[in-house]
Amino acid sequence: MDTEYKFFADRFPDTPGVYLMKDGRGRILYVGKAKKLRRRLASYFRNPAGQTPKTRALVARIRHIDTLLTATEKEALLLESGLIKKHRPRYNVVLKDDKQYVLFRLDRQNEFPRLSMTRKVVRDGSVYFGPFTSATAARTVWKLLGKVFPLRKCKDTAFRNRVRPCLYHDIGQCWAPCVKDVDRDAYAEMVHRVEMLLSGRSLELVDDLTRQMKAASRDMEFERAAEFRDQIRAVRKTVEGQAAVIHDNRDRDIVGIAENGQGLGLGLLFVRQGRLLDQKQFFWPGLTLEEGPEVVESFIGQFYGPGRFIPSTLVVPMDLEESPLPEVLAERAGRNVHIVVPRNTQEKQLLGIARNVAARSMEVRETITSRLQKVLRLPEEPVRIECVDASHLGGRDMRVGQVVFEDGRRNPDASRVYAFPDLEGAGDDYAALAGWARRRMESGPPWPDLVLIDGGRGQISAVEKGLAECTEECGWELASIAKGETRRAGELGDLIFRPGRKNPMPLKPGSPELLFLQKIRDAAHRFVLGRQRKARKKAVLSSELTSLPGIGPKTARILWDRFESLDDMLEAGPQAIGALSGIGPKRADKIHAALQALKTSRES
User: Fold this and answer.
1) What is the per-residue pLDDT for 81?
2) Calpha distance 21→32 (Å, rounded)
3) What does pTM read for this prediction?
């Protein structure tokens, strides 16, 4: 029986840790951290009249509280952040748009540095510039810089193994240091100019380029002067729209919050080298300014995760001095990070801009997942949808592919493929789906709000059978999608089935809800087929590789760990092979000779 939760303070320790509030079905409603667990939990059950609407709704649904003890508040913060990202509890501040933004990476440790775009920061001596919330804008800038600053474009693997210049050299956008004798000082000077531009020293760079253009013109070197002219134009075009808002040339992000009647908005400004580079909005419905400190702290902990660029200063609207966040961010960034309130007039003005950005944010009232909840008659909005598709090749290589969509967008990192060697030769999709259900239960949370199965009523029954064999009650909502009368791919009238119903759900052909479910099903179908083909191709290539003299299974594994494909191995030189762990120069020569013999036999 679902009874109201009774809180007893003496059941909880007064030490640092994390608490997980759960409902009657064992689902996590809220994850929080505390320096003193007993005191923090007791605050939820005192004076309900003084609580915010969100807290009152949360407390009303609590049926159980689990705690995880930690040695320090910092460890509690890290554990809380990981649990929120994994479980995405309903009453937590969860980032729906937590993707890594585009950065420019300049690998200064290389003799001939390359400017590339990335979404992850790695401590490898490279310098990073950005972020850009728009990948299209970043790509436009990268192409513009590539036209007038001809740095190399190829990756290190191709750079080391290239034997002739690439197309970029032919069109004048690369000096081809891979195969040509390039002046290292001239290349370093060009890298320095790119770094000045991306570091915000554009005015200084324009002045320097202007002096060099005039000097080249006086010396009658008009082609060289034209190159400087083009670089000046590119610099000016690159910094268009970046307003100088502060004049200390430091990197800082500014966080502002505002309540707008529908909920709480958060505005984030990216200021790089004193210039306003970009901005971003976030919104959480139903929250008020009273939850502001919790929102800001939780947002910073999730947004500035490992691999993201973290500026040296974060300007926030309230004091967070007692928070362990600065220490956590310093470890992630590899340097000191300061979280401060506005310290001067310029920072106060920037905070005002961030607050205005936050005030303009609002909730998108009707999302595709909320519409699915209505048409499929689900008890809750399907925030996390897992779609599975069973596939085999003539009864062999039975696989079940699983793709995940969260908040209407695919999460590629959560994709999984399950192999069933015990079903080899059987071609039994139903047995594979039942096996998938059992193994999915064993893998643990986060649990799906909806499981979409490629198939009809029989496929749903198979998954139900697999779930029934598990002792833990999961409460998953199931649906299946089957092709319509013509059985053709892309048909608008696919059929959606739910357990306990003989007839399909009344979704209109071509409706947004049906098209979205088709999109999910197609993603699962492509994923499992791609994995099947890749596994079979790798098996064939591995067999072809191990048939060569001097290459056994262990050596083949070393080569596959280093090279992405067999073609890359065939193009590699003896030095690249000899640099691998466990392979010396003499053995590298033998392996290279064997690979070249294979290459010759392929070409003949």
Assistant:
1) 87
2) 8
3) 0.60
